[in-house]
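Step 1: inspect the first sequence and its tokens.
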Amino acid sequence: MEPTSSKRNLNQDVALDPKRIRSDQDHPLIAFLSECQLQLYTNRPSKLSAEYEMEAQQDILSKLQDENNNKMDWFLSNLEEYLEDQTRLFYALMSMQAEDFDSNIGLPANSPIQLLLNIKEIQEKIIDALLAKLLEVMYEDEIIIDEEQKSCNMGLLLIYQFKWMDCPIDSLDIINKLFETVKVLPKNLQRELIRLLPEMIDDSKHEQVGKLLRQFQDSNADLIGPIIAALTNLNILPQTETEIRESLTKGLQAFHFEDLPDVIKFILQSIPKNTAVAVEIISKLRNHINLPNRSMLLTVDSKGDAIDSCAEKLLNVIETAIRFKKSIADGWIKVIDSLTTALELNLIDIFVLIIAYSQPNYCRSIIKIFKKKSQDYKSITNLLSTCFKDYSQLLPRYLRNMLSIADSLSQSTQDVIRDLGCHFYISIFSMKNTNYQQEVIGSFLTHIGSGNQYEADSAFNVLKQLAKENLESLKTFAVLILGVMEFIDNLTESQVKSLYYILCRIAFSENGNDSIQDDIHIILRKQLTHSKINYRLMGVTGGAMAVSCLASRRSSQQNVDDNNRSTAAKDALTQATELLELLYKSCEGFPEVAALLYDELADIITDNEIDTSVKTWISELIVTTFQDNYLVEVNELPSCDELPTCLKYGLDNPEDSTIAVNLLPKLLSELKKSNFSENTSTSFASFASQFHLLWTCEKYQRENLDEIDALLGCPVILADNSKITAYSELSREFQIAISVSLIYCLNWFREVIGAFASYNDAEIKGKILSRIKAMTELETELIQLLNDFPSRISLIQKLDLGAFKKLIHVEKPLKLLIASKNKNKGKDDVSISQDLKKPAAKEKVTITFNRYYLRELNTEIFNILSCGKVTCSILDSGLNTESVTVIDIQPPQLELIIQDLCIKLSTKFKIYSIIPESKKIEHQAMRLFSKLKTADFAKIFVQLIPTICQNLEAIHASLQTEENKEADAMSDKDSVILDDVVNGHIVSSYSYLLGCLILFFEWSESHQSEGQQLIQDALSFIASRTNTIDKNTPLSTLHEKCYKYLEKFLPSLPNFMCATKFIRLLQAVNVIRKDKIFNFEISTVAMHCLKKPWPDSSNFSKSIYKKQIAFLLRLYLQGLKEPLTTLEGIANDSLPEATKKSKTTEYSTLTKSTFPIYYQTLLEYLVESLKNLVMDSSSWRGDELNKLIHLQSHCNLLYTLVNLVKVLDKRPVMLSVIKGGHGFIDIFLRYAMPPLDKLFRAQKDVILTILKAMQQSTRYLHHVCGHSKNEKDSALTKFVPLLKKKLEVFVYRVKIMLAVNNCHAAFWVGNLKNRDIQGQEIISESNEADDDTSVADGEESLVNSEDEMTDEENSSSEDDSSDD
């Protein structure tokens, strides 16, 4: 136990001992040193009379050496006696003053003692005296010197005398004495003395000091910081350095956080310039170091400051290592990149990535890592939030790096990557520094003005989030954001809405900006009165936002009496009402503008963000206008003499039906008034939107729709098909009117279904099912009508401001497209009606109907899937049952609902591979659905899984029955087989059902913590279809039962696309458990699908089918134990057979059109397999021969695949071999050649065989390069230089290896002629001018002279082959 420290006043000690009071001249040491130009004082700092301290040292040494040996002893004994006095000691340790010396040259020593220490001859004795004195005062923490109450730590002052010694210590005796002294000193003095050791000790003794410190470290873990700091500055042998590094790495967990900077500095400095070694060390290092989570520590300021200081030192150490040692930067980035999930990242990794981004060579790699880790979005954003929250004071120095990272991520086309970039921006903005916030706002404005929709959307999303969470800080930059209004013409509808939301939040919130309010009012009035519709639409969007913000002020005071309401709230309500009136007036004569206004108001009412009086005003207005505009009494139906009409799709008893929707007559009259011009707008453009607002208000006021439930079953006035003999006999105007009326009727039905979808009443559900059935009938009728009259489509698409432009898609045949292009060559704009006016009789156009551009279906409609059969009763006037109807979902209706579910899953989970078109769906098309959170929709879907499984089973049974019927039809002519239309709906529904399950199981967030329960629930629902499942059933059992359940659907797969989706579903389910057994089973299923004949094989030439074939082939190979054997079989047998007319290959999916995709996939898999084989150099140890045999197999397969170019020399095949050959040779040079160098002497024959196989491939690759250049195909030639460079490097690399191992006879050099892929020599101008054996001049001289490697025994045969 250490004695307690003392605190003494030296003046009091002197007063108590009068004998110690002397004049300066009384002590002999003072007189002696004064003769040597050094004047000592006992009450003030000493003075140096000499110009240079070296003069004083020479005088002292000469005087000591002139006399006998007793003079040295006399000097040392007087020095010890002089230093006994604490005051003398203090001033002897203080810095000296020079006498009349102003020059900057030859500065005096720090103290008289340090001057004496630099005299080599007396250094050892002086050190002994100082160490003895140190032991006397080591427990005195503070000593008061004079009347000014100056205090000092005498022990530290003694230790500092050894700092920056001109004559370092080179005596082992003194070094041993130092370490003996260190062992007994207090901890604070131990730390300081150990840190000074590198400055005290001569370089020749650093190795011995390092070993002593190594021994001292084992028993003093609490001194690891200063010990490592000393070791870092010592010149020790690499072996000792390695031992210390390994010892430190093992004991990292035992060190205190404040010691980590020194420890990490030593470890990083000791890493050699070898990336592989750096990766190995850093992998161990990063598992034991991390910045502490401040939220888990005690909130003590001193402790927090200490952590900040240590964290800053640690980051400085890492930054220095990354900046000046490439192997460390490469190694750390590779280690981070190798982590499978973002959960394995820690705070240090985040800082390393941010720090390393300042190095230009690593920018792309770091961005790739962030993109890769963004797939686990929740984990990495939580880590970033912790980083910004706990260590915000360390981040400003890396601000530029973070902004650049955020900028790069925000430019990605993937939503999740852009979201990560936005998280960076939000975190930087939350640092509450105006300069940083201004940088962020400037970046947002740059993204908005970039012209890239993805970037602009991300920027607006972040600004919206800041407007919600950090509004006060955002108000500072209101003028900058308002400047975006100048470019509003270039913004999309959703971006305009976001911009107005941000500005209105800034302007109309509490303590809002008055000047911004005035600007917004001016802009809105200009837009709402503009003559162009697009500006009025912008004005409506902004006006609705302004109303929402103005009325929301009032919402917090709704329960307060009118008399007590603040004046500001009343003014806001008045402004909101006036603005609503202005919005309503601006819609007069513009139905499209009215439609947008109704939808915006419905959104506001749904969000409950508007005052009750305003809602009442809207409700009264909408009810009266809707009834007057679109509804008529059944007894007073409007007449339409020119076109026969009738009531259709009425669901109620005709005697009880009192109202009907006046659709076709009203539409026809409006079209006539406009003379059917192209830019006609009808009131029906706002028909569905107005009803949406109507039922929204009704539901808000009465919490039900009982008052308007008659609209669900009321009939619609449409064309009477029974009285129309043929549509072709009708005029062009009537054809257009009927087509448009069907579209509006579809939107009406979809909106009505959405309104009543939440009802559980059987009668309501029956009517909803009837409406869904009517929708499918209307779609069929409409598509048939448009197919018969395609020339009318162009005009229909231009009605109502192009509302139907994306709804109807025209797919023209290839011949018609070519003819149209040739005919209209040179014309910039050709309408569809001109292209299709006189189509060829055999070349009919195909019309497709994009349902997702109709009115949005409510998510509650999916509950109808589980209702089964519904019984509806129709009552007569006496309330007696007149008739009973049983309704259930038929294949067309099932397809419609499941397709909508699949589209919603795709857009919400942001997975667009199942339905690529869903990526293009605009925000306007899914207004209601976009408000639903992803997790909430996932919960809805999980509850639908039993119903989905039920429908899958029903379709499976139906398809199995259908196959049996087809088999029986050969013998039984009376067998009834489903027609192609119904069968098409069933197959399509099957595909969408599988797609829904795929989207859920591939949802990235489902594998995170909050999605684990949803996954387990989903697996439980699926597994319960086989037998009863307990709540405590483990996940592995659920996974196995789920897999077995899904496997039974394999026999009923109707086509190839359904088969690929089915296998993708199996793979998505298997990812949850990652079981290798199931990988093999999935591989077997993939093989079955590749070999099975499919009815849609004629579509294999399409790109989407080729992608699926590549997916299945890769999956098949990945699950095999010996994939190279299968790959060799396909390459040697199946691929050559595919190009023959009499095809006998066992793979039905392998045809001449799919040959390139097979070839590309096999070559890519071979390159990937080679990379896995040779990447890990440590796996070669002890298994060298087996590795070499596998490497030889890869090289032989490369030669086989390269030679297949002769079978089918198409551009895709050539491109694949050029890219694949480059990748194979690159990996071979990087990772295979170093082990071959080491094993060459032991395995010479095997390695020469490998090189020979490679030489055969490289020779033919040269021919491919020459052929590509001769053909002058730019798509191929741009990749040729890279391949040629690798071929040349390979030649010289092999040449070096063989020369180093004295195997010159194993290879010889010959001239390789320039040939095409068939082996024919390519004659060029240089060939004609030169000899046949000469090498082409210029660029080709290096790549056309190939080094031919062969054994001595085969040299003659190889010579013959060189001319082939």
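Step 2: inspect the second sequence and its tokens, then contrast the two.
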Amino acid sequence: EGASILTVIISTILHGLELPPELSRSTESSSISMQEVAEEDPEEGASSWAATTSTVGEEEATPLIDHSSRVIYGSPLTNMMSYTASSSFPSSNTTCSSAVTPRFSNVTLDDEDMLNDPPPRVPSMSSTTSHPTSGSHHYRRAMRSSRVPPPRQSSSIRHPMNNGSANNNNNDTLQYNSTASHNHHRPATRPILPQRQPQHHHSTRSSRIKTSTTLIILVLGLFLAICTLFQYFVMGPDSFNLPSDLDLNNNDGGSTIGDHGEEEGGSSKAKKKKYKNENVFLFDEFGRYIIEDYDANPPFSDILPGVAGIYGKPLYVFYVNRGQGIASFGVKSKDYPIMEYYTANNAYQNTALLGFRTFYKGRRNGNLLQGNKKREFLVEPFDSSRTRFSQLMDSSGSDLNEQEESSKYPKRRMFIGANDMTIQEVDMLNKIETNVTYFNLPEEDFGAFVKRTTISNLDEKDALHLSVLDGLARIQPVGGKLEAQLKMIGRTLEGFMNVHHAGSEGDLTMPFFRMSEIADDDAAVVVEEAGHFCLSYIEYQEKNLLPIVYDTNKVFGEDTSLLRPMGLYEKSIKEILEAKQYGAARTSSAFAAVDDVTIWPGQEITITSFYGRADSVTDLPIIARRITQGGFAQFKLSRARALIQQITSGAETVTADHLFDKHVEQMFLDNSLMGGIPVLLGDVDDDGRNADDDEKIKVYHLFSRRGDLERDYDNFIIENTYFSEGPSNFRDVIQNRRNDVIFNPRVGAFNFNMFLSLIQADGYNPLSVEAVVFSIDDPEVCLRLATNVVGFADGHRAQREALASILCDGEFRPGQLVEMIEEQSIFLMTSLSSLIDDVAAASKVSPAAVTEGAGFAADHWTYLMDLLSSYLQIYPDREEYLLFSNKLTYYYSHRVVSPRKSKYVLSKSYNGEWLHVRQLDATYESTERVEYMRQYVNPASGWYKNEASIQHDVEGNIFRSSAIEKLFLLATIKFSTRDPFGMGIEYEAGKPGWNTALNGISSMLGSGLPETYELKILLRYIHDAILKFDRSITVPKELAVLIEKISTALDELGDNEHMPIHDSEGIFKVPQPLFLYWDAVATAREEYRTETALFSGETREYSSDDIAKLIRRWMKQIGLGINRAHVIGSHGHDQKVAAVITPTYFSYNVTKWEETGFHNDEGHPFCIAKEMAVGKFPLFLEGVARVMKTMDKKQAAVLYEHVKQSGLRDNELKMYTLSSTLAGQSYDMGRMMGFSSGWLENQSVWMDQSYKYYLELIKKGMFDQFFEEMRSGMLPFIDGQKYGRSVMECSSFIVSSAFEDPNFFGRGVLARLSGSAAEFLSIWKLMFIGDTLFQLNEGGKLEMQLVPSLPAWLFRENEFAQSRADKKYVIRFKLFTSINVAYFTATPKDLFGVKPLRYTIGLRDGSIMSVDTISSTLAANIRKVVLIDYIHAYF
């Protein structure tokens, strides 16, 4: 330590004296590094890093995008689109194309930081690096295309901390010295002193002054040296309290690190803001929700969104509030884990041991004068043995808060951010604070998960000497689909595992985890070349990659439980690193190792690790050079946060309740992740044109995802590509896109047209929806596009033809297009974003979906009217064109609904006591349809062309109908599917409606009244629209035949109401006339399905009067069926009010049948029903929410009071349960009977349905009732302690008081991403905007009217009010994600359906308009967004 002490002496002298320039000048003092800027201010440092690294050979750094040259409106993801992070494309200005146009939807334009500091491409590759093998062509191109800025000397220094404009003005030059920037050690962090020009005086007096100055310096230096030596030998070496800006590095045995860590929001030194709302909730300055003692709270799971930007490759990440949080992460799906996927119940137990772990082996040398002795310790932060469980705290009999300094139980916190998560431990016993921050690496051409571990020395006097292991206890290799194999043949699988290395022999810094081959028992052997990696460094020493300990035995020894690091008890980390490690035939670890680091009092270090997947081991050096640039991790963390902020700021809401405001943004984000975030591609301009106006503008949704640790049944997919988008359930996507056009008018009718196109000829739809696909059929167009981006030269011919072939060989998505370009090593001469836009403009777009498994959901079609209603609220003037002029296709499925004779089977009851007829195998795969679809297989790829999923006629032509014609066909099919009593829509296709836990109700010949209420709404709309526009429609001949048969059956039924009458046993048998009508119509429907395997191509025209008469007749029958349903009612334990509340579900018992003589595959005989009786179920909230849509305010108010007194009300929680008690019901109804009461779909508070019910209250103008329910039953107003997780995030369900354990009452279960987000945004729209934003006046002209429904308690004081004339109270929000809207009132008062007295509208050009009514051109311009800055409404 002698050399270090002498360095301390000299450095202390120099630090305290300002020496003459000739003595103080050094090569490093003439520049400032990005690390220094990042240390002074992480955000500023990140921006400066961006500006510097964007310099590629130029004399001065220039901004990547000159945003001053154009105005961006309604463009939250503009920077995502403008920025191609990948170095896979050669041009250094790939990301700088001025052709990139704003077209995104979900963020405000006012975020100047996002506009001024777009993310840079990282010029990380050095030309001197050895080339990878041929397996990494895209990284080779990256090396050719990116260059490290050349060294240059700077005579003038602009310090960003001294010149505030340096960070915000893109035209300023930030110069730096490449030697300092690329030094292997952290440069000095103290501010560079202004340079003085030497004075050249040659007098004798000047020489004497210099000599005297030198003598004084020497004397002072000698004195300080004596004092320093005295302190060292008497008080101990750790008594030196070094300046915070001093850094010493030692290559030979360790390093002494100063205060370099970015101060996270999770730091104990960070500011915390308190916001009170019934309970006290905490947020840090990054807006992250804080959970105190997170690991002592009830367990919960959560997700990181999987958003890495448009030009990023996300990983999935799940976390829990146990251990170090992260429970699983990987690539694409649970089949490709880096950390093995476990369901939530297992993750709560495993995470603390199998997940991320950190071990400190340290010492403190003590201080003799202060009586501190030398002490050594081995400690694991976040270990479960030191969790502050209340039981342990209570046993001490003292207030823990008063024992912080001496407690052996450290204080822990979790900070839940929108795109990052931090955990913190403050260990006062060892005086160490540990902060760990996780985030997905954004906007790079490789996917990685980042862990930043910041270790702080809290001791004010004593230095901390540490050796550290920080990383993953178990890391899985790449080797095909591993999920099932890890669970079933995990030990055998280990035989294929090994660890390879990218560095030289003995280099442990770049391990590569892969299997030798895919572990399949097939004749075709697949050798594995891809692998997972772990790269790590100490920030500000990025060029020194840390060695990785991957041999699990070296850390844990023979403790196979991984409970204790037995290896560290026996050896030092240095000894572990010197010993040989083994990785064959075992599951490895991935610990970054730090040997002998000293953290001085009050200072800290940050270990940053990257976990990801690479195609080849030779890619690792390329990735390593990318991530080891100074300030890289800090910048990427700021970008990860900014990406989400760009999305959520479009829903920015400012009220008197900050918690509510944050919840709005969170629900907007979750809704976006469920349905996808719409972006515009193609020929997009700033003129406000939307996808309806121009066929060259395409809508594409990003980031849609589903699945987590609790929804373990979801086989989620998060594509690890640019433009990442995963498939999802039809219902989830259509529901969560309901408000797309409300927030983003430029989306137009895209969603309505797409989902209506997925309706089949039989009225059903595929279960899974994927991202739309692009295709180009004209080879000349493909060649032109390829020539534009590759070039005309003869030398480019091969690549030009390769790209043209890619474009013309079938359907593709943007991310897939980029991947194919990389695989073919095609060199682009233009920006990638320009290519995507050009291709999108020239392509046609087709919806893509998959028919998965058996059965069709009965309710998916019901969400179409929500899409249509939302569209017409924005575009009422385009209704006729939408309905009659737009021709749509039909989806074509290989699965068909079975006729009754092939699915009604005779079998024993679940207890074997009686025989009953059940409906089984309700759908089948049609071999004829499969054979027909094979003609559309693409020979180039072997995949079906998209045309295979489109309905044709017998001539091979695609059959199309207008929107109103498809809606009418859909309504006809559903009307023909009513049950024998004419009440509910039959669940004939093997699946129920929304409540999928009623999976057995289909076998019970069940039906649902919710779908009938939706049919009533659909028919009423078709009737009114047909008469309104007086237009005829044309339908397929096959449908016309079905309509005639329905009419004939109705004629035979007659006008008798046939109200149900129960027998002496209380059984309601189906009257024979109703049964015969049902049988006739069901037979006609089955014949229609047979005939529409292919349409004949013939059509029949109906006049508007004909259609109106048919619908009126059908509506009468529907009304009679609903009346019968109320007579039959519900069955349960709350009969007192059940009679006046609508029932929801029914079943039918076949009381008389005939066997057909045929049997199914299980030997059960097929039957034909001859007589039936209806079965009843308890009350369900779904029926209440749906029927309220058909009621007026008075009827809804009566129903509300009855529901409040029913078994649907949980009086303890003041919420509404999904159902009343299910006690006594048959297990045949489905898995919900197998769940415990109060849990999952068995009488829990299901938030989706509760919110749907609340939505109807505010829709009906029942404002007092709605806001009363809101304050007790909606987030964020519920009890956060009971809820057990962030009240920002809405769970799928809340455990009701019907559950047996009262400790669980009110707890949220199933993390986020549910339909409640869509319902909440619809509620938000009604509260802040109104039900009908745009309408047509009596003259047919467009008008706009804001009609909010806001309570007085949401108004806040107007901070900008300057005089009495100014309105003192205000609420602010964003309209169309871009226009700032403010409501002003003189006093806080309820605004329930009140129109403003006047408007003040500010335009982008600075002009201001004051109007009483927003009409005509002004309304149209607001809808286009492009000209409007703000709207102020005065009440």
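Step 3: confirm your contrast with the notes below.
Confidence is low (pLDDT under 50) at residues 11-76, 82-206, 241-281, 395-402. Residues 204-235 form the longest helix (32 residues).
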